[in-house]
Design a protein that fits this description.
Largest sheet: 2 strands, antiparallel
Number of helices: 1
Shape: elongated
Distance between the termini: 38 Å
Protein name: DUF2292 domain-containing protein
InterPro entries: DUF2292
Pfam family, one: DUF2292
Strand order of the largest sheet: 1-2
Strand content: 25-35%
Organism: Paenibacillus endophyticus
């Protein structure tokens, strides 16, 4: 059962702040009883695995 959730401008700003600078990762929004209660941000690092371990470089895209 789904219900439309109204999001205050304050929460939209918080979500935007969590998205800034993320190249690889997840921004997860937790909702309880129709209200946003938590925002989790998990960042990932991706590496070029075709090169030897000593020259592995982080991808920039």
């Amino acid at each position: 059962m789904s219900r439309t959730v109204e999001v205050a401008d304050e929460w939209l700003q918080r979500i935007k702040e969590q998205l800034v600078g993320v190249q690889y990762g997840v921004v997860q929004i937790t909702i309880h009883n129709g209200q946003i209660v938590q925002i989790d941000r998990t960042e990932r690092s991706r590496f070029d695995t075709e090169k030897s371990p000593s020259s592995v470089k982080r991808q920039k895209s």
